[in-house]
């Protein structure tokens, strides 16, 4: 019976390839936008800037709006997620149509450059999964995956998922050969890898109801790693409920120096532990600018995606952040080197597309630590 139980648990341990968690759960799918999933306005600005550099003057907004209107009006019976609006989803789905118009009017090189800009502007993996599985005005009859939001812009609730996750087995006695660094830890559940529950304060009532699963007898066996790019909303929510439960690690994302203000907001969240997901790291963060006061954990990673689109990741950026964490007694976890890792001016050639297989790394980079609080936690 014990062997059978462990086999069943092992099956559950394969639910995510994310290196720093056993599983993921999403009380919401979708997001109100961020630097990884920019607004339509930011897409239009990026396209307009490129065309301006090429000496091409064109009403980008007007052209895209006409394309969207044309394809929306071809839909006999619009379904949930089909919108006649200038959205990031529609811009993405019609990118080839838009580039074809530019190619016809101004030559193929211009069309190719426009397509490259669009594809480099959207890098969120959760958004791309939604774009592939959600509503698409180019393919109106495509069956939408009901486990996803209709489009990534449409923050969608999925009640009951947290309660189901709370019932998963405790993993303290189990080892995962693929993730040996998780040995001896409670089950680590990454909350909101496919969206951002804290996109708006209007979700607080719902989140509070879902939070009951975290504090339940079953839920207390696990550690819940809750990530948001809006720590200011997390702060407001923590004030409302009198602080997050002790088995929640609140986290926020950094992508470069221009997102450092999120650390200050995260520090103000009433929680037992706090973490930073510095991934994808697009630009060097000077260690002296990263105040780790009140921070327990730092995860670092390069950008995944296509080799053509992914930004370079300097290994030295990770190493100096690792030393900064050691100096301040903060656990450091190098998740992945990304698709285009660079060391001393040379591109590293790795078999793993994400650069996440640490057996390919130099030994000095193989650091995957967790906060002492995680190992000491007893639900």
Q: Under the CATH scheme, which class of the largest domain? A: Alpha Beta
CATH architecture of the largest domain: Alpha-Beta Barrel
Question: Which series of helices and strands comes N to C?
Answer: HEEHHHHHHEHEHEHEHEEEHEEEH
Radius of gyration: 22 Å
| Structural class by helix and strand composition | alpha/beta
Strand proportion = 5-15%
For the biggest β-sheet, the strand order reads 1-4-5-6-7-8-10
Number of strands: 12
Q: Note the gap between the termini.
A: 24 Å
Unreliable spans:
1-6
Mean pLDDT equals 95
Q: What is the number of helical segments per DSSP (H or I, 4+ residues)?
A: 13
Largest sheet: 7 strands, parallel
What does this entry look like structurally?
- This protein has 13 helices and 12 strands.
- The protein is of the alpha/beta class and 379 residues long.
- It has 2 domains: 2-32 and 155-376, TIM Barrel, CATH 3.20.20; 40-133.
- The strands form 3 sheets. Strands 1-4-5-6-7-8-10 form a 7-stranded parallel sheet. Strands 9-11-12 form a 3-stranded mixed sheet.
- Helix 11 links the parallel strand 6 (248-253) and strand 7 (273-278).
- It is globular and about 65 Å long.
- Mean pLDDT is 95; it is low at 1-6.
């Amino acid at each position: 019976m014990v062997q059978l139980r462990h086999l069943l648990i092992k099956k559950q341990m394969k639910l995510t390839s994310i290196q720093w968690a056993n599983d993921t759960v999403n009380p919401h799918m979708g997001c109100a936008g961020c630097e990884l999933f920019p607004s339509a306005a930011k897409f239009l600005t990026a396209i307009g800037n490129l065309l301006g550099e090429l000496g091409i003057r064109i009403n980008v907004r007007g052209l895209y709006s006409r394309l969207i209107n044309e394809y929306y009006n071809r839909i006999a019976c619009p379904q949930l997620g089909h919108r006649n609006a200038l959205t990031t989803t529609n811009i993405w789905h019609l990118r080839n149509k838009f580039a074809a118009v530019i190619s016809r009017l101004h030559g193929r090189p211009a069309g190719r450059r426009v397509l490259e800009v669009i594809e480099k502007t959207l890098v969120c993996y959760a958004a791309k999964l939604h774009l592939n599985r959600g509503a698409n005005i180019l393919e109106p009859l495509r069956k939408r995956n009901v486990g996803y939001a209709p489009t990534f812009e449409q923050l969608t609730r999925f009640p009951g998922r947290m309660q189901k996750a709370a019932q998963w087995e405790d993993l303290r006695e189990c080892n995962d050969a693929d993730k040996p660094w998780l040995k001896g830890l409670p089950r680590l559940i990454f909350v909101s890898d496919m969206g951002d529950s804290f996109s708006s304060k209007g979700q607080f009532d719902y989140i509070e109801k879902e939070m009951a699963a975290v504090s339940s007898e079953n839920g207390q066996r696990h550690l819940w790693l809750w990530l948001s790019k809006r720590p200011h909303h997390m702060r407001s929510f923590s004030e409302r409920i009198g602080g997050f439960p002790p088995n929640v690690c609140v986290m926020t994302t950094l992508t470069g120096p221009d997102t450092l203000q999120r650390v200050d907001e995260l520090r103000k969240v009433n929680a037992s532990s706090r973490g930073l997901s510095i991934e994808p790291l697009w630009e060097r963060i000077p260690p002296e600018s990263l105040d780790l006061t009140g921070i327990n954990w730092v995860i670092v990673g390069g950008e995944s995606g296509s080799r053509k689109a992914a930004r370079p990741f300097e290994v030295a950026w990770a190493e100096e952040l690792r030393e900064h964490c050691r100096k301040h007694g903060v656990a450091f976890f190098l998740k992945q080197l990304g698709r285009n890792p660079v060391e001393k001016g040379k591109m590293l050639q790795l078999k793993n597309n994400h650069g996440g297989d640490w057996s390919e790394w130099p030994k000095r980079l193989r650091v995957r630590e967790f906060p002492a609080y995680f190992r000491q936690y007893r639900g």
